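ok new one. same drill as before - structure tokens go in, u give me an amino acid for every spot. 458 of them this time. try not to just spam alanines like last time pls lmao
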């Protein structure tokens, strides 16, 4: 998430145009959205540009919003002259910090702009040297292609590693209006709640994405203040080629949000999740994005991938696993033939809530040496203390084995789902690391900096 605007109003002259880039973690999306009654996904870091003469004031504001400033970097604002604010922001994020931060999109459109959206928006132009594997060749000549080292890595700074990943092709003030192709239930009989697998038609769009990214959905109608509804982000549950492996669709895994109002005890349903869960084939849906660089898979086909998910946090994991093990995907990705090891630890309340159960079991049976599935079914299984078996209990059960894998340089760990599971996972790995005299919190910072620890919780 990136904020820009009023803060820089006092620093737009060359004399005194010292701008600093704050990296903030734990920040709520905004003071306004902090009052909403639905969870807002937070992952990676938030980046805010702050003029020198507003630094102390901004620090106090961020503290009030629960943020923790983890780094401050100077930006030469004069060098950014001649570019629009949005261009400057995108360049700063992509070239300075894109390896370690996920770009979470903010709706900067005014209420009038959003309300007046009609039909499809124009796709944001893609730079000529933008290329993503599986989407075609770059427009650069062979002589102009970036030089690569012996391992095939582009020889630029590591922080520009994901500069070619598509981001914000469609923005909130000009979304793509796609259509629902299918909407299938994922929870079996006697399961808890409503979870749907939705597939949207992208054939008339320029939207391309890769595994681990998210798209925004703008629900119809207005909010409690009479303003157009803001977008909500959802992790993509399909590979870059889509469920039909034809590059024309994108899929989501969506649970209808339902909870009791704390004061009235009235049952409240999430606005956007309810809209999505009851879409019919042919219905229109406003799509923005894609966004996100925090949850991307490594290119290394020999990598070891640990996945920990709860509920609909399975969405990006499904995309990874399809890319690794589905026959049609393997045929479509001649340059990516996975030979590594993938381990999914999946937490759900009941067996009927094991989303994509048949798919997962089929992969495990077909590739027993490459894929391992471990489930934590809280309302049916017991932990060693006799309580419910949650995902953190499974992690504790296999902590030594997981710690051994995590120490390997080829291992990447992905966590997606409810934020509550993180504390238990950290506790289990803290105990395992301590056996070797290692402080887990310090080690975790190291692998996160190395781009091997990926978290998207909400």
């Amino acid at each position: 998430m990136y904020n820009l605007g009023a803060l820089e109003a006092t620093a737009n002259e060359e004399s005194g145009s010292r701008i600093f880039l704050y990296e903030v973690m734990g920040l709520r999306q905004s003071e306004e959205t902090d009052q909403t009654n639905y969870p807002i996904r937070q992952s990676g870091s938030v980046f805010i540009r702050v003029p020198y003469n507003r630094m102390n004031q901004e620090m106090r504001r961020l503290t009030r919003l629960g943020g923790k400033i983890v780094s401050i970097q100077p930006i030469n604002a004069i060098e950014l002259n001649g570019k629009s604010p949005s261009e400057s922001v995108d360049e700063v994020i992509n070239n300075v910090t894109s390896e370690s931060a996920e770009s979470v999109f903010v709706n900067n459109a005014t209420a009038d702009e959003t309300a007046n959206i009609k039909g499809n928006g124009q796709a944001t132009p893609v730079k000529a040297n933008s290329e993503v594997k599986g989407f075609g060749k770059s427009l650069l000549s062979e002589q102009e292609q970036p030089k690569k080292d012996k391992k095939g890595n582009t020889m630029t700074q590591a922080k520009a590693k994901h500069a070619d990943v598509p981001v914000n092709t469609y923005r909130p003030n000009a979304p793509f209006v796609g259509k629902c192709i299918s909407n299938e239930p994922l929870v079996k009989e006697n399961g808890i709640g409503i979870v749907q697998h939705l597939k949207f038609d992208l054939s008339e769009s320029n939207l391309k994405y890769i595994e681990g990214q998210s798209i925004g959905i703008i629900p119809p109608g207005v909010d409690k203040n009479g303003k157009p509804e803001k977008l909500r982000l959802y992790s993509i549950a399909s590979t870059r080629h889509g469920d039909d492996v034809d590059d024309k669709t994108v899929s989501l895994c969506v649970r209808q949000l339902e909870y009791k109002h704390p004061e009235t005890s009235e049952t409240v349903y999430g606005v956007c999740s309810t809209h999505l869960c009851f879409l019919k084939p042919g219905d229109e849906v406003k799509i923005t994005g894609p966004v996100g660089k925090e949850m991307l898979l490594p290119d290394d086909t020999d990598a070891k991938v640990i996945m920990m998910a709860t509920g609909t946090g399975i969405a990006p994991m499904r995309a990874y696993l399809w890319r690794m093990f589905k026959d049609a995907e393997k045929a479509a990705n001649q340059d990516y033939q996975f030979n590594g090891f993938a381990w999914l630890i999946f937490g759900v309340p009941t067996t009927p809530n094991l989303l994509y159960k048949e798919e997962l079991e089929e992969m495990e049976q077909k590739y027993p040496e490459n894929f391992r599935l471990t489930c934590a079914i809280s309302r049916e299984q017991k932990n060693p203390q006799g309580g419910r078996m949650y995902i953190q209990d499974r992690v504790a059960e296999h902590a030594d084995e997981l710690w051994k894998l995590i120490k390997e340089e080829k291992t990447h760990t992905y966590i997606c789902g409810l934020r509550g599971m993180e504390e238990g996972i950290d506790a289990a790995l803290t105990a395992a690391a301590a056996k070797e005299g290692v402080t887990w919190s310090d080690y975790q910072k190291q692998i996160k900096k190395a781009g091997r620890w990926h978290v998207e919780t909400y």
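The longest helix spans residues 421-434. and btw Residues 6 and 330 are 49 Å apart (CA to CA).
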